[in-house]
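User: Reviewer 2 asked us to show a designed sequence for the structure in our supplementary figure. I'm pasting the structure tokens here. Could you produce the per-position amino acids so we can include them in the response letter?
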């Protein structure tokens, strides 16, 4: 549920994009300076937006030029050196550890456990510097992920609290007033809740294929309703959170709590998230009511593959062909060599009626 709020570059004001890039490069430089090049891969887009929100309050920030790891393309980049940026870098490691722990819990693999344990050694030195409240929030959120909680309301609440906690931790290292820190933290609490909802909308088909928890199917079963109705219920919640965030951005901008660049880039990030939700519109929205209740499934269920291929159900094809069946495929499969497809019998004409 972390890392989704990445602003789209399409139609972005160059000045706003430059400010965002400066904060992005600042966190990257801190991660490399305090750790190593490998830790720059833990760069978090939500934390970049947090830094952009607190950018006007970075008193005595030192302008620097940092060598970009992709310097063959980008060369040296403008950045800033400040204690708040270093805290953002440390929190990027903490959030990376939380994500790695979630991965290792859902699908234990050697490399996932290795990554989790490696990051945990770093985190042990970071957590004691945070407030007791922040440590408790992180611990409870981690517990929710490890136990695969089916209480979506609690998960959604603590995702928002985690985002707010991160914002407060960064804000305390700036000369921002407590009232403004709280206002900015409230904004990112809403952002966290939005990401939590969007995550399940985006992963609906994937969760169905892998038989993993998703509040859409859980609610449909509990309330004896259709997947379609449950999906649109969650999507309505997504839209209401968007409106609430837009209203909050306007209030903060008019109150001069955040700058125009921050408000604009948060809006761009939400627009990008909206596109992702639309892109992953689930197939069952077009099915008859009986199918949408899960009473039977079509001969295949499409899903995205982690390798970037489309509709391969989560397993990469040995022949490299995804999408339409090729000559070496079982006609009921989407991909060659796939083992994760859902195969059931099609309903008879009488059942379809």
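Assistant: Here is a per-position design you can include in the supplement:
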């Amino acid at each position: 549920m972390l890392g989704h709020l990445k602003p789209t570059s399409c139609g972005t004001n160059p000045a706003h994009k430059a400010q965002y890039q400066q904060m992005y490069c600042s966190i990257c430089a801190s991660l490399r300076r305090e750790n190593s090049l490998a830790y720059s891969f833990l760069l978090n887009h939500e934390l970049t937006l947090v830094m952009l929100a607190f950018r006007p309050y970075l008193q005595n920030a030192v302008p620097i030029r940092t060598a970009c790891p992709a310097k063959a393309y980008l060369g040296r980049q403008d950045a800033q050196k400040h204690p708040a940026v270093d805290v953002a870098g440390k929190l990027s490691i903490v959030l990376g550890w939380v994500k790695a722990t979630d991965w290792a819990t859902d699908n234990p693999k050697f490399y996932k456990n290795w990554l989790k344990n490696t990051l945990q050694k770093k985190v042990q030195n970071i957590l004691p510097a945070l407030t007791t409240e922040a440590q408790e929030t992180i611990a409870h959120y981690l517990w929710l992920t490890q136990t695969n909680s089916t209480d979506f309301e609690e998960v959604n609440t603590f995702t928002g609290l985690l985002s707010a906690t991160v914002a407060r931790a960064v804000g305390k290292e700036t000369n921002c007033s407590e009232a403004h820190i709280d206002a900015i933290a409230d904004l990112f609490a809403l952002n966290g809740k939005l990401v939590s909802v969007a995550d399940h909308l985006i992963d609906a088909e994937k969760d169905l294929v892998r038989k993993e928890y998703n509040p859409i199917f859980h609610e449909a079963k509990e309330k004896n309703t259709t997947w379609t109705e449950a999906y649109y219920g969650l999507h309505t919640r997504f839209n209401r959170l968007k409106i609430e965030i837009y209203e909050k951005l306007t209030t903060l901008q008019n109150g001069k709590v955040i700058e125009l660049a921050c408000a604009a880039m948060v809006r761009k990030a939400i627009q990008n998230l909206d596109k992702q939700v639309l892109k992953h519109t689930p197939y069952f929205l077009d099915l008859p009511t009986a199918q949408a209740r899960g009473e039977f499934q079509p001969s295949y269920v499409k899903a995205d593959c982690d390798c970037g291929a489309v509709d391969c159900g989560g397993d990469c094809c040995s022949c490299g062909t995804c999408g339409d069946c090729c000559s070496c495929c079982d006609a009921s499969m989407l991909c060659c060599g796939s083992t994760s497809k859902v195969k059931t019998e099609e309903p008879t004409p009488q059942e379809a009626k």
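For the response letter, you might also mention the following. The two ends are 40 Å apart (CA to CA). The chain has a mean pLDDT of 82.
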